[in-house]
Amino acid sequence: MKLNTDIIRNIILFINDDKTSLFSCLLINKAWCSQTIDILWSKPFRLIYSCASQFDDQSVCRCSFMTKRRQAATLIKTYFSFLILEYEQELIDNCHIKKEQILIPKFDYINYLRYIDIHEMDLSIIDFYIFNEISFNENLQDSNNNNNNNNNNEDEERIIPENFFNFFQEIIDDTTNDSQSTLSIIKIIKYLASRTLMVDLRNTFSEYQIISEILLKFIIGKCKNLKRLSLDINHIYQKSLYNPCKDFQRYPTALSFYKRSIMNNPEYKAIDIYLSIPKYVNARNCLSNIKELICTTRRNISDFLFALSKYVRNLDKLEINIDFPMETNYSNFYLSREHNLLKFEVTNLIKLIRNQKRLSHLILYNCPVDFFLIMKELKESQAENLKILSLIGIKFDNNNNILYYLKFLTSLQKFQLVNCTIIQNNYFEYLTEKLFLPNLIMIDLNNSFISYQFLQCLLQICSSDLEYLDIGKKFSSSLIEFNFNPIQFISTNFSNIKFLRCGLISFENNDLITLLSSSCNIIESIILDNNYDNDENNFAKCLSRLSEINFINLNYFGIRGNFKFSEFTLSHFLINNIRNNRALKLFTLEFTNNIWFNDDYLKEILKCLDDGFVCYKLIICAYNKINPDLLIKARKKIKIVQYVDRSRS
């Protein structure tokens, strides 16, 4: 049966992150190829460094280094084929390359490009070098074995001069001179055409950034539909938490070196290549329609932001890091200088925000200066557009201000504070009188130090349809000091909670039961924390009561901290004949940092699995050493078992 192209397209869009399936679809027939080719080549660097393992399997990676190197070499070679075609006749006339060496692409791959992550692109270029070097050495060895007397290559003239990259950098810096720019590209192509010379390039000082600049300038000049540009430093090493490819972190790139205090590092100046992107020839045509910009390097990005603010108008998501680039123990003179530089960064970030037509998602890191000027700009230019506001690592001097500016963001749907600190303040009644955010259905206070007053204020101003709530685990005042019980408040005012993560103290157990009983039909994820040093929560009675609740959609249940319960109570929770569905069917079951969890608990879980309990993933981080034989049995019954032994810590 022949499928309609619209149906094929929907199938392709559904699997757009599965590179193996995309390659398979590409080879079915012309109809499938035409619907797949642009999706496959929209983010080629990302797909190369996506793990071949299942997305949710955090502990296993089955990727092959050589496979990725071969893919990267093919990708870079394909892009260079466009560059070679640009100067085809001149290269042939000057005998730099033979006509039969020129690869003619079947599709306009550059125009398919939608996503560029600089770190991934640099990894591809490094792998391009390594693959060519390995191939050259293998061919050379084969040649020597077959004909030891053939030494024709020994007399080949060394074309790359020793000082080539010294004067080459001066040539490519002058982008205003077309003849010089052409000369630099032709010279690079000349070296890429010879595998012998590739080895010389491989061993040359910071050579890959030079190729990266040549390729990036060419792509920026030709691509007209770029949607995402990422100069990411915060997530380079965090991505493996969700996509565990062991291949992704093999090499440092220019973005990995972000402190101004390491200027003697050869990679240090290379990042300026990327911060100059908005000034490249034809960059306006390429970047004017980008929807997502990520720039989390700790280098000064003031000029980068200012250049973008001149013509970028359609950003939907903006992720920016404003932070000191050196340690705080430096002299006051340097800190004062850096403080002023940060002020310029904030000023130009504000200009970029002001010029956006519809900015809906802002993620801001650190920002130790002039934070509330940014909030003021959001109030004035994006109040009706902003739907997601994420603030990470920010220390608030006065939480009155953040509440004041929040009330203008009437379209806000998600408010996130991660690793933030908000001091206690006693002037809340005045602030909350006219403060209401009717669309706020997600509150995430992960790992933030906040006062109970501030938490109460947030819960009072959000929508009654609140679905996602992480109230964190660290507070700057205790319940005894302030008469507010967050679990009780949540159970009384919200009935649509789908995700709940909260710290839990012993006397809140009954309130938790009330809350989960009212939300049992819709709640999907429950994560309970107990990180209070003076509260060893006797959780057995509460867990026993929870076992009577008929959870319909629960797929994640996590217990973090020293909750005290027996293995039999746990077994009773996982399988209980009183419930309509009897045995729980969970995607993930988690026990983290619990001093009570031992072999007996794991044995009960295995018995429950034989009796109808379903679990796709089990996470154990225990202070008692777990028997390896039990873990082997668990891995036979559960697809993913992650175990961290903390018995020695």
Automatic annotation (TrEMBL):
It comes from the Eukaryota. InterPro entries: LRR_dom_sf. This is F-box domain-containing protein. It comes from Glomus cerebriforme.
